[in-house]
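S.,

Sequence below, as promised.
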Amino acid sequence: MLDARQLEALAAVIEHRGFGPAAQTLNLTLAAVSLRIKALEEHLGQRLLVRGKTVRATAAGQALLAHVKQLRLMEADLLGGLQGGGAKDGARWQSLSVAINADSVASWFLPGVAPLLQRHRLLLEIVIDDQDHTHDALKSGDVIGCVTTLAEPMRGCVAEPLGVMRYRCVAAPDVVQRCRTPRGAVSPHQLLAHPAIIFNRKDALQDAFLAQHFGLKQPNYPRHFAPAVDAFELAIELGLGWGMVPEQDLANRPGLQEVLPGATVDVALYWQHWARESASAQRLTEAVKAAARESLPPLT
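The prediction came back faster than expected:
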């Protein structure tokens, strides 16, 4: 049996990124926290933390953090059931952490899960990251589920298909016009003379578009970075450059035109979550899958 006090000490150090903040949170001395973690490492026969200027978890420490978070959720579900459950006044709020790409959060995720959150008094902590990288937060134990492009289930996890996010390359009308030849064809040379508007440095949708539709591999072109959905789309509307926008957003952006009409980049999305879930996490998983079915084209 693992010692619950030792596990909580480990989780506190990882979550608060240091022994001092963890000791304050647990109302313990620094020495007591250190001794509990040392005892846990000796019991398991391996290091759980990398100690230095900053403290970080080893792979084993990350696995134990995920275990602690599962235990917390299961305990909260149990207590909720013993107290009558439901969304009655006085029922305990419960927090769930998830990692999602920004486009999914705004377009289908939040509208789809909002009724569940209100009905069961669930709080979301949303970690925003590129869909190719959200699984890192699940792997580290920081979240209980993620919207990701990773189809292969990670260790201890389940990967469930959600559907396809379809993107189109768009720009302001005058930018689109300047990207065309006198005969009306799109000139990739002219397109790349204009900056691309990119969400962040992890965003590879523009490169995928150029590779799929023009056969260009890692071309060099100027880029603006705008890591906020509204600012990203506004920058395109203002004529600062071209960018990849979710298909479902275009109805709300009449000022944007397709650079290459009909050309899309389809991104397959999956919901990865712990195989062993608490009741609240299971409800969230079902709500996420239902929301995706309502809003996303299915995977083929």
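Residues 9 and 33 are 6 Å apart (CA to CA).

Coffee later?
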